[in-house]
Design brief:
about 200 residues; mainly alpha; about 85% helix; elongated
Length: about 200
């Protein structure tokens, strides 16, 4: 019985790593597309980047890095049987996700209020290349935001499982896999932030 559980555990971990690989390919494709257009419109990309809010981008980077630490500590706490600490750390991660999404909402709202959004007349009147930059920006950050939302939902599900006792030190694959997914969310943003906010 224990061997069967071990096989299931290994299979679940392998399945998650394969899934994460496909996710990396998805975002990797967007980053390659970005690189191609950056080569074509370097000056336009630099100018468009200056329209983004560096304080919002920096704040969200710090939020995600901190949340990734919370998840890692939650996994460690669960392995040590510290249920209360695990719940607290998972809750902190979910709150961090909410803060990230709220920040992104205000950032997008400011851009939309200034007429900078896909298909807008203002965007069409910008210099060639700037429209490409913002279209890629909305696609990439929108897709990433969706992953943040999904990751937060997974962590809430895990949190409820820990609270009910269904997830514990002896069976915590759901927590570890959700943690891996959240680290992916963090990793993707580590690339998004410098590419879109820090172009020199």
């Amino acid at each position: 019985m224990s061997e069967e559980m071990h096989k299931d555990y290994a299979g679940a971990k392998l399945g998650m790593w394969l899934f994460l690989f496909t996710e990396l390919m998805l975002f990797g494709g967007l980053f390659i597309l970005y690189a191609v257009y950056l080569q074509r419109y370097p000056a336009a990309f630099v100018q468009a980047s200056r329209e983004l809010s560096l304080p919002f981008g920096t704040a969200n980077t710090l939020v995600l890095l901190t949340s990734s630490l919370f998840v890692a500590l939650a996994v460690s706490a669960m392995q040590k049987g510290q249920r209360g600490q695990t719940l607290a750390l998972l809750s902190a991660t979910v709150v961090s996700a909410a803060v990230f999404l709220i920040n992104k909402y205000f950032e997008w709202s400011a851009k939309i209020a200034h007429g900078i959004y896909p298909g807008s007349e203002h965007l069409k009147d910008m210099a060639p290349g700037q429209d490409v930059f913002f279209n890629l920006y909305y696609i990439t950050t929108g897709l990433h935001g969706l992953h943040v939302l999904i990751g937060a939902a997974l962590l809430v599900w895990v949190l409820l499982g820990v609270k009910s006792g269904k997830i514990g030190p002896a069976d915590n694959v759901a927590l570890e896999n959700s943690g891996l997914y959240w680290h992916l969310v963090d990793l993707v943003w580590i690339f998004v932030f410098p590419l879109y906010y820090l172009i020199l």
